[in-house]
Amino acid sequence: MAIEFRQIPALAGQRTSLPLGLTPVAWPVLTAFLAGSVGLALAFAATAGYARKETVTGFLAPASGALRVVPVRAGTLASVMVANGDRVAAGDALFVLDTRHALEDGSTLDAALRRSLAQQAEFLAEQIAAEEARSASEVERVAARITGLEAELVALSEQRRLQVERAAVTGERLKALSDLRAKGYVSEAEYRAREEAWLSQRQNLAVLDQQITATKAEIAQTRVQRAQLPAETADRLARLRSSLADLRQREAEVAAQGAQVIRAPAAGRVTALQAAPGQRVDPQKPVLTLVPEAAALQAELFVPSRAIGFVDTGQRVRLMYDAFPFQRFGAYGGVVADVSETVLAPDEIIGPVRAQEPVYRVAVTLDRATVDAFGRQVPLQADMTVTADIVLEERSLLEWLLEPLMSARGRM
Asked: I need a surface site. Which of 83, 307, 334, 365 has the fewest CB within 10 A?
């Protein structure tokens, strides 16, 4: 069956309508609005900047350097003579350090050491006195020996004189007997007896000469010994007295270790006093810091090695002091003044901050050395810790958005 389409008279005069709320004029306006929005977004992305920053930590320190006073050994603070802000001169007493260690019997190690050293010193003093007495006795003995030898030499010389006379008399008699023997008045046996007597006298004379020579040699040797005695005694006494002096010095050191007065190595203002009487201290941690008078402060920041390549002198730094929370007191500015060329290991950092990785030291000149707090300007102090934002790189948002595409293109 065929279907016939016929126009309904009631609808013959109507036109097909556009979507609700739109008119032919609204389409160009919408297109222009969208194009303008995109243009504004692109313009904003091209002009608005985005900074890549590195947040680091550090502390304030005098630009000319600060003196951190540390105890020479672990101990207890017996008293503290200064307070933060005090000005001291070189040599002024800062605090008294007590390094005595208690033993099980209630005494102290220092007292035990002093007793031991005193006993050793007493023993050495006795040795010195004994050496002096022995030396005097030895001098007397040697002098007496020389006197005895000289007397013995005199006696031997007299014996020799007499022996020479006896030998001469015996020789003359032997000569007379020789003449009588030739004439037959003396028997051969009597002559031989006289000859043996003369030879015996000559032998006795030779023995006396040997004794005299030996006695003279012994006298000379004993005199040399007597001459050497003072030097030998002085050398032994010098060694003993040197050992005694070392013991006395050790006694003084032990006594000084018991209660040691730590003095200021240079003039300055006391800051960062971190201990009180009765507190244990050790050489790893400074008790206080001395800041030179009129020394300008700077921030010493520690930048990780991964970011140091983007840090250079002249860069701006945003500083936030931990003692003055920036949410309430705001942030302050500074300029990078110096970048170290050597890396520091975490254990090489000396100061109130610690690092977890190798870092570089960056010195920052402060825009101002005060903080606006409580209606007044509060001066900053050395060793105050600080958190800082260092701007490493600035780009527009468009450059950041297009960076992946540019990187991909560079790799093609």
From this structure: 83
Burial of 382 (0-12, 13-18, 19+ CB in 10 A): buried
pTM of the model: 0.47
Separation of alpha carbons 135 and 231, rounded Å = 11
Distance CA(107)–CA(114), nearest Å, equals 12
Question: How confident is the model over 126-167, as pLDDT tens digits?
Answer: 888 888 888 888 888 888 888 888 888 888 888 888 878 887
Write the CB contacts of 235 (distance below 8 Å, at least 6 apart in sequence): none
Q: Taking the mean position of all CA atoms in its chain, how far away is CA 278?
A: 26
Give the Cα separation of 336 and 101 in Å (integer): 48
Whether the predicted pLDDT of 215 surpasses 80: yes
CA pair distance 219, 224, nearest whole angstrom: 9
Q: Using an 8 Å Cβ cutoff, are 86 and 223 in contact?
A: no
Q: Where are the alpha helices (DSSP H) in 7-108?
A: 26-47
Query: What stretches of 289-362 show up as alpha helix (H) in DSSP?
Result: 326-329
Q: What is the mean pLDDT of residues 68-72?
A: 83
Tokens read off for 226: 């007597």
